[in-house]
Amino acid sequence: MAATEEQHEQALNKFLDERPELRHELDNLNPLLAQAKGETAAQYRDERLHEAFEAEAERQGLFAWELTLQLTVPTLEDYQKQRMEVHKEVAQMAGMDWLEYCDLYGLTP
């Protein structure tokens, strides 16, 4: 079960709450940069937030959806369970053998 859009929004909010310096930076972006990209200030800010979130996930060796789960599920057990469910779904969609997939991504089946 992949993270929902609502979960992702919750994760982004928690991510920002834990990083007041990033929130300050995002709240004070130059509006001309957004205009130069043909975006509204809100769209430009949202893009920067998503970039920071994905960079943090990568820094931790996670996919962004894994960081979303990590920030939104109540327990580590729930995180591990949901994480493995999503990985199984991805393996099935890719038509990969589960053990081969686990080996590729360093997962313990």
Number of domains: 2
Extended strand count: 0
- Pattern of helices and strands: HHHHHHH
Question: How many whole angstroms does the radius of gyration measure?
Answer: 17 Å
General form: elongated
The major pleated sheet works out as:
none
Helix content: over 70%
Q: Which class of secondary structure composition applies to the elements?
A: mainly alpha
How widely separated are the two ends?
Answer: 17 Å
- Any low-confidence stretches, pLDDT <50, length ≥5? none
Number of helices: 7
Mean pLDDT: 94
Portion in strands: under 5%
How does the SSE layout of this entry go?
Layout: H1 5-17, H2 20-27, H3 31-36, H4 41-59, H5 64-72, H6 76-94, H7 98-105
Description:
This protein has two domains: 72 residues, no CATH class; 35 residues. The protein contains seven helices and no strands. The chain is elongated. The two termini are 17 Å apart. The model has no long low-confidence stretch (mean pLDDT 94).
Offer a concise description of the structure.
This protein has 109 residues and is mainly alpha-helical.
For the structure shown, list the relevant keywords:
109 residues; mainly alpha; elongated; DUF6388; DNA repair protein
